[in-house]
Structures are given as C-alpha cells and as structure tokens.
Amino acid sequence: ECQSLCCENPWCTSFDYAEKADGKTHGPKTCWLSSASEGLNGGGGLEWDPTNNYHYYEVTKRGSRFMTLTEKKGILSLALAGGTSMLLSRDVEEGAVDVWKLSTSVCPDRQMAKGDGALCKLCPLGRAGTGGLCPVCRPGTYAAEEGLDACTPCPLGTQMPGLGGVACSACPTGSYAAELGTVSCTPCRPGYFNKDSGSQSSTSCVACGPRTFST
Fold this sequence. Notes:
Radius of gyration: 29 Å
Order of helices and strands: HEEEEEEEEEEEEEEEE
Strand order of the largest sheet: 2-1-3
Oligomer: single chain
Distance between the termini: 73 Å
Shape: elongated
C-alpha cells in the first residue's frame, strides 16, 4: 500500500515503513512518503536501525501508468475528455480496455531530472534553480554546493568570466572588482597600479612614481 501511495503521488521518490509501533509517535504498519532520496550512503540522514523495525525504499518511476477497464457485456466505444494524454487498446470480445496514461512530474526546487527521466537529482556544482530546472550559473555568479536554488554573486575583489562557475577567482594584480557579481575585473587606469590580488576598490590603485609607468 505504501508503494502504491508513493507511485500515485508524482512528487514521491521514496518512503519509510515501520512494522511495529514505537509507543510514542506512530502506530504499527506506518509509512512516510518523501520527495528526497537518501542515496547509497544515507546522505539524507538515513541511520542504521538495529531493531529491524524501520525499512527504507526508493521508487523508480517511468512516467506512465497502466490501467485495465473491464465490462462484462463488452465495450463498444470509449470517449475521452479533451486535454488528456492517453493511449488505448480495445478488445471488444473480452470486454476490456487497456489504458496507458502518459504523465510527467516536476522535480522539487534545487533538483533536476536525471538523464533517464525517471528520477530527480540535486542541482550539480555550477548549476542552481527551481521548478525542476537547474540552468548553469551565468557569468559573475557561481554555485559551490549541490542542491542550490540560486547561483551566488561573486564577492568583491573576485571575478567569474565564464558559465557554470564553481568558484570565483581573485582579481589579479593591477585590477579590482568593486561590485558583487563581477564578470571581469577592472584594470587600474593608465599611470596607476596595485600590487595586491583581490583588490576591492579603485582606491587600491596608486599613482606610479617619477620616471615610471604602468603597463
């Protein structure tokens, strides 16, 4: 029954089941549905149960549901409401109709579909988003962790000129970044220089001395 409930809900990817009551929070034969997967090593908080009372299951969905409708007197015709996505095969003599309902589900925020389209996974490094989409981080932003809903602007004194940044790089000597989310550091104006990387303001650029110039 727990598996059926999880399959019926498009957001469900796993469930826990307790055979016996714990005397405090739940009764016997209780299940909890979840939109997250623990993973091979229990990354979502799964812990070993020495009592062998709690069981954890992950459900793989293939994006379709199969149903068989039967009528003893036989089925001559079947009408579908507009806007449905169904495939039908009819057997008039046996009085049965096989119905495949094609459906899709949206991954939770901070997740995207895996390549097979059957499960969701956390937004990878360099990507972030909501609504089941994890677009690559734009220039000037980065995502240093998995499972983020938004890319982070580069801090002052750093830059990210490319797409899908995992970490911003410090401005090289002779340049600075005075704004968050800098794509490319600003060079010191002619006749000025700085010798420190990661500078955050134009005031870090100082005038060249007599008989010297900046390149």
